Fold:
Amino acid sequence: MHLLSASCVCALLITVLLRQVSGLQTVIGEYGETLEIPCNNGAMKAEDVLLAKWKYDKGEGPPGDLLVKTGNNAATISATDEYKNRISMAANFSLLLSSATLTDQHTFTCMVVAGADITEHPVNVVIYKKPESLEISETAKELEIGKLTELGTCVAKDANPAANITWLKNNVALVADGKGISIEASVQEDPVTGLSTTSSILKYSAEKEDTDAQFTCSTQPTVGTELVSSPTTFTITYSTENIVLQVTAQDPLVEGDNVTLKCVADGNPPPTSFNFHLKGEMVRVENADTYTITNVSRETTGEYKCSLVDNPTLEATEDVTVNYLDINLSPSGNIVKSAGDDMELNLQIDASGDYKVSWTKDNVKLEKQPKFAKLIYADAGRYECEVTMGLLSQKALFDLTVEGAPIIKQLSKMASKDANHKVLMCEVEGSPKPAVSWSINGTSLEESPFINGKIRHKITFRPAVNLTVSCMVSNEFGADSKSIHVASVNVEVEMDKQDDNDQTKLVVGVVVGLIVATLVIGLAYWVYMKKSKQGSWKTGEKENGSSEEEKKLEEKVEENSQKAEV
Ligand SMILES: *[C@@H]1O[C@H](CO)[C@@H](O)[C@H](O)[C@H]1NC(C)=O
Ligand SMILES: *[C@@H]1O[C@H](CO)[C@@H](O)[C@H](O)[C@H]1NC(C)=O
Ligand SMILES: *[C@@H]1O[C@H](CO)[C@@H](O)[C@H](O)[C@H]1NC(C)=O
Ligand SMILES: *[C@@H]1O[C@H](CO)[C@@H](O)[C@H](O)[C@H]1NC(C)=O
Structure:
């Protein structure tokens, strides 16, 4: 209202001035400066002018004389009032008025006598002054959303005419709307200088977006450039509408970790105290918005809440889940078992979620958890199981050793490179690795790697005589030995038949039988022929002879069978 009236007064003033000025020349002077008031726009020829005189309209009474110039003489100051020391005349008859003030706003008249003509040239003088500066003062500490608040006062000091103040938000003019924006302007005139000081009060109802808004005030002086105040920003306050519970924890959260609960409220200023609801238990936190649970355990898992102390209906909820994965493998460590033993394997898993189990034996993946019904040497090795649940994993392992006394599985002859050598191979099973020795000295002793409790030993040698060769094995759990007959290198054929002694005996027996039968038939034939020739039978001789023959045959058979055993 005041502003409106002020601006109206101002506009009116200018209009009036302009109207007065129409037909009448107006000169605008700057406050405090020297003002030049031209005489007839300077269109005077000095040589024609007999007399030039300046006077001014005092408003009432006769005009006040200022100065007079005649002919070529210097101008004489006739004024006796306050103009006495502030006036002079230029060569072109302009009146120069120093230190102009508002009280100089009169009509000044230049009277000229040129030849027989006397002319008067009135000039209207207006003095303007732009305000010293524009400043926003008495600013609000903060603006509460939705509440009409006196944001500040903009003061334009000592101006003429009175400054018309505009409020701006982010360089956009604010217009009073009777609701969220109200502007009250007032003008005070200095009784001494006549200068006007305009004060404009902005009442403003803030919105959330006004948080960083820049408020300024400005004025456009009648002459010169626009004046703008330095910008002011405000803290926008509002009560909390939303609340969020933030859970800060490592991922995955496991036992022993810390969990920080943070209650974030969107109010400004933010609330300073909160209630944290820890699975039923309530903890009040002052001057902080966090609550830390240290060294969490699986029991920590649950529902957590936070709420405003002064508005418990505003609350936020989050679930906290502590992951855990415990495994227990039995047996574990170093396991020593005897071949043939049973072993039970037990893997216990206690986990907070779904998990996967994988097994390896000596770093080779197994399809499933191993089972040991009767341990064999091949079962020995390092067994590892890994249980994974998301990013968590646990490992357990055991080293299984299967022990047992060595057993010779086979002692056999091998093909030899040449007819002068024999090769024997002794195949042994047992663990730890059995020591293998032979009953003879040989060359090229070869030993296979010891794998899965098995080892093979080869010996190459040259038997000069028929031999019985033994392979002897032993470890800390026992010993074993086996023998084999080896013919001297000359007796190749029989050597190969060593293993089938009984069969050889049978074959030899059949052959001997056939020879005996042939001899008997031959003898019978011979007796028959002799009987048929002589008709007599020398029984004693012949019986003796035949029994001797039989003895010899029997010996031969025995010999043969002995040979066959070699
Ligand atoms: C009169 O003379 C002054 C210099 O003495 C000059 O600045 C001014 O412009 C002149 N005025 C006119 C109206 O010619
Ligand atoms: C963490 O809690 C467990 C029991 O839940 C306890 O044994 C352990 O000592 C605690 N550790 C620390 C560092 O407090
Ligand atoms: C093997 O040779 C060594 C000497 O080289 C000898 O002392 C030992 O009696 C031999 N063993 C057999 C079984 O011939
Ligand atoms: C070895 O045995 C064979 C028959 O098996 C025999 O002919 C040979 O004479 C025997 N050699 C020795 C050196 O005893």
Notes: The chain has five domains: 6-128, 134-237, 243-320, 402-491, 499-565. Helices lie at 2-21, 492-496, 501-534, 539-565.
